[in-house]
């Protein structure tokens, strides 16, 4: 039995013992007492993931009207072998995730070490001390296939467990704010019964104070700001919880510049979050058919989108990269399709565009290996045993977040087809989806199971040097719009590769001038949605 | 044989005779000579429809850098019984359509009567005088069913005929600018061969100068401005036509404040137009499933959309009214689905979201009679023989444009169900879709053929007085967000109806306060996407 939790940097932390738990709770009691005497509220944040850890710090960093800290925050994380390491790291003032926003490291250090307004803990007993509980426990959607999101299911056990324990431990007048993106209906039809039942067992007759509010966090250089300085939507199961959540969010976020939207029932704010992300996913999926249309008919979709974006009412039309990744867009619609049946009790297939959009986005990346195959064929080569260099592993430009990235799917298919893979991404050290599945991340997050032969993936290289990554490449795939890739001179790429190669542009990364240069250098070029490339080929191919 | 053309106001105009044609052409020759001597270019605009007539006036109203008129415009319209009346009307300085923008009447009067820079004619011989031809001939998409746009077809004969005659008559160096929304590929694969062949017959060996540019006209109070002061996209079949179209549009539109986007090939700008409108149609269709979800689960979609709109990246999310109307959104995607097969030669079903969006939008209105039926049932009444008052016939707020309006479909279904209909719309005098199909509009535009018993529709009343329209109504349907309807006091509506009635809100027209008042007055209320109404009913129903 493993009794250590290993951090991404490889540091081993022994899991807490029974004795540790008692000491830890006394520590928290002392802290809570002290801060309560200073007139502060005790906030417990459950779940130290991408959102929870930063939300905890934002709350701990907030001040009241007189400029004094108004909250003391306990960031709580279950001591599993997979996640326990976050607790001792935060306790040192170190952020439990890598982020492109330097403020993430700073705010956690500031709150833990300087202000001492934030502490991390592994014991649920912290809940007994809470005035407010913020729930940031993950609620995943697990797909059963790559092209039929509706057959998947919601993995809600961790969230249910957390809510049950919350009901067993919190003071009866504590506000429980669910911040996780959940299937619509969860706050009222899952959380409320769990907490109500636990209250009943404890002889508490008052109504649980449950609220829902969703964040709109965006990985990247404005990570912290996207939590604190951005519009929020909230709701509560009754008027008291609604008033409490408005008060709480007003105290910890910049609601002056970014006013709250208050909806009446939690199902309304839960639904708003899903509609918001499904809206984005649908816009992107809509463009997939136009991307293929463009490729087949001499149209450059990149320029068409630029032409359309000019209209203020159409300014959010965006080029769909090689599959739509990130944690939210690929799953949120699935939560609603599932909830409509399993929480809300309908049996008809109401949802059409929402799940179709996810299926289209999930499989869009599979067209990239097709383009690589065709480009190689034009050079008299085959994908099998060819060296393919992938530029970009993350799901978005200039971040290191690899969750559900298009590159993962491109690579898994290329490996099936027999290619040799080398990956370069300046933002990514670990590509968790290709590492040991038992530790990090959860199995549901890897899409290896949808492909033949997962073992070969362990042979894949993450190469920290671009020239080395390109050496002897038969194909280079521009997969992500990282700044570094936008201005890469074609001559340098060809030189690093040691000769002409196939060049695949997945994201409108190459302008016409560069495409022309690649052709003049003897390369083959193809691109998602870029049907005009054949015209350029006729004009410029050596 | 009919030899008159009747205007919407009922004035009869005899069609021109052979003798008239000769005189008319001499008139145009004299005008052209005179204006050419003044250093002006001769522009012939083909098609005096919604776009063509105003575009002709905008060109005629334009001035060169020294402030002098640079163009003389001949607006040409085929002398069919259905359309000939436009010519004599324009010649009097009267706009051939009703518009909410007073500038439409003014600009046509100014150019025809004051500046004398615009004349209208019925003879194609005008083309022999052209430096530039602007083609605004309609290209319709005819559906074969209400819920399967892909089985429809493009009605291109008029456009083809116009292009053929253009090739036969224009000077070889005239620029032909196609402005009609056409199936992608039309300029290069339909227009080019037609003109080229005509040129060949005439012994002209030079390449035809064909260009494509699309307008983004918006019915309403800024009609003229939406043609002149808005961004344009253009393209040409070769570099000379591209340069010519850039020069022409720069001379006649405000390209200083609204810069041109130049795309290389016409298929790129033709595609951009369709993507642009299909994008909008898809966003609206996406919301239909969420509208039904909202209704069934206590969610007010109006508030959810307001919550989401706050995000700048989501500001174009809009509540889908009762079906998505107007001339463009219901058909443009169909043009592309058709072109992909019939012009571009593909047999696969590439398009998924684009046609699905049109089908969803075309049938969304059919849910409104369901709501009316259910609301009546709650009052112990039946839809058959009930009087239903529809507030709003147009497709958009504060305009009188009824093309493909949701109200048409609502009414046709209600008539099938046996209801008695009364319509009130302060902007609509004629509801063409319900009038004689042989004259105006073209048969393809009416959706009567998708419904049982079209005859009954002639019994429908357009009532110019609101109170009279509401008298004895069993149901009132708020169908369009006309300003007048937004603040209608519930007490006044109930009083006009003579007692409590069923109230159906199709467009988020009633705020919660009004819904509450209707309930307090004993009414039944239901609304598209407004699931929270049941909560209000429990609280306030008398």
Largest interface: A-B, 61 and 61 residues
Find the count of extended strands of chain A (DSSP E, 2+ residues).
18
Radius of gyration of chain A: 25 Å
Dominant shape of chain A:
elongated
Task: Give the oligomeric state of the chains in this entry, treating copies of one chain as homo and distinct chains as hetero.
Answer: homodimer
Instruction: Supply the CATH architecture of the largest domain in chain A.
Output: 3-Layer(aba) Sandwich
What fold name goes in the CATH topology slot of the largest domain in chain A? Answer: Rossmann fold
| Unreliable sequence segments of chain A | none
- How many helices of chain A in DSSP terms? 19
The biggest beta sheet of chain A, please? Answer: 8 strands, mixed
What percent strand of chain A? Answer: 5-15%
Major sheet strand order of chain A: 5-4-3-6-9-10-11-12
Detailed description of the structure:
The structure is a homodimer of 542-residue chains. The mean pLDDT of chain A is 94. Chain A has 542 residues and is α/β, with parallel strands linked by helices. Chain A has helices at residues 18-37, 52-61, 86-91, 102-114, 157-169, 186-201, 223-228, 239-252, 266-296, 301-309, 332-342, 353-364, 367-378, 406-416, 466-470, 483-486, 490-497, 512-520, 533-540; strands spanning 4-6, 12-14, 41-46, 71-76, 118-121, 132-135, 140-142, 153-155, 175-178, 209-214, 233-236, 261-262, 387-391, 420-424, 461-462, 475-478, 502-505, 524-527. The first copy, chain A, folds into 2 domains: 4-266, 3-Layer(aba) Sandwich (Rossmann fold); 300-323 and 365-540, NAD(P)-binding Rossmann-like Domain (Rossmann fold, 3-Layer(aba) Sandwich), CATH 3.40.50. In chain A, helix 2 packs across helix 4 (102-114), helix 5 runs parallel beside helix 6 (186-201) and helix 18 packs across helix 19. The N and C termini of chain A lie far apart (63 Å). Chain A is built from 19 helices and 18 strands. Chain A is elongated, with a radius of gyration of 25 Å. Chains A and B meet through helix 9, helix 10 and helix 12 of A and helix 9, helix 10 and helix 12 of B.
């Amino acid at each position: 039995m493993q009794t250590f939790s290993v951090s991404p940097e490889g540091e081993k932390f022994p899991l807490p013992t029974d004795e540790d738990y008692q000491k830890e709770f006394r520590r928290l009691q002392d802290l809570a007492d002290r801060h309560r005497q200073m007139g502060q509220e005790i906030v417990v944040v459950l779940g130290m993931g991408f959102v929870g850890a930063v939300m905890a710090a934002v709350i701990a960093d907030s001040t009241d009207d007189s400029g004094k800290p108004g909250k003391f925050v306990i960031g709580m994380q279950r001591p599993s072998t997979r996640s326990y390491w976050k607790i001792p790291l935060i306790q040192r003032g170190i952020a439990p995730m890598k982020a492109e926003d330097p403020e993430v490291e700073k705010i956690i250090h500031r709150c833990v070490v300087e202000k001492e307004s934030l502490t991390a803990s592994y014991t649920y007993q912290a809940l007994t001390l809470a005035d407010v509980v913020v729930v940031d426990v993950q609620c995943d959607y697990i797909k059963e296939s790559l092209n039929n999101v509706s057959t998947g299911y919601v993995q809600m056990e961790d969230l249910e467990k957390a809510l049950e324990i919350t009901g067993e431990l919190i003071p009866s007048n504590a506000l429980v704010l669910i911040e996780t993106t959940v299937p619509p209906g969860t706050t009222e039809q899952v959380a409320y019964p769990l907490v109500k039942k636990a209250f009943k067992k404890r002889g508490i007759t008052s109504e649980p104070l449950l609220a829902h509010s969703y964040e709109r966090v965006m990985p990247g250089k404005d990570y912290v700001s996207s939590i604190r300085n951005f519009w929020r939507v909230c709701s509560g199961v009754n008027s008291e919880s609604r008033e409490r959540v408005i008060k709480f969010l007003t105290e910890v976020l910049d609601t002056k510049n970014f006013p709250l939207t208050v909806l009446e029932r939690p199902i309304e704010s839960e639904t708003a979050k899903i509609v918001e992300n499904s809206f984005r996913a649908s816009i992107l999926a809509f463009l997939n058919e136009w991307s293929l249309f463009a490729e087949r008919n001499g149209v450059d979709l990149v320029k068409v989108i630029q032409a359309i974006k000019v209209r203020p009412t159409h300014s959010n039309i965006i080029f769909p990269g090689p599959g739509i990744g990130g944690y939210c867009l690929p799953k949120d619609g699935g939560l609603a399709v599932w909830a409509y049946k399993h929480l809300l009790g309908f049996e008809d297939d109401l949802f059409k565009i929402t799940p179709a959009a996810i299926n289209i986005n999930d499989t869009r990346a599979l067209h990239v290996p097709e383009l690589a195959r065709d480009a190689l064929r034009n050079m008299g080569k085959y994908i099998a045993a060819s060296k393919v260099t992938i530029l970009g592993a993350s799901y978005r430009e200039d971040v290191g977040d690899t969750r559900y990235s298009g590159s993962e799917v491109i690579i898994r298919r290329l490996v099936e087809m027999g290619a040799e893979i080398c990956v370069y991404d300046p933002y990514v050290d670990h590509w968790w989806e290709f590492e040991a599945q038992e530790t990090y991340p959860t199995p549901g997050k890897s899409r290896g199971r949808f492909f033949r032969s997962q073992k070969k993936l362990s042979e894949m290289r993450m190469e920290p040097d671009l020239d080395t990554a390109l050496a002897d490449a038969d194909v280079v795939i521009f997969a992500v719009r990282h700044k570094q890739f936008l201005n890469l001179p074609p001559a340098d790429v060809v030189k690093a590769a040691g000769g002409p190669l196939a060049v695949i542009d997945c994201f409108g990364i190459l302008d016409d001038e560069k495409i022309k240069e690649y052709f003049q250098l003897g390369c083959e070029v193809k691109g998602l949605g870029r049907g005009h490339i054949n015209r350029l080929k006729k004009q410029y191919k050596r």
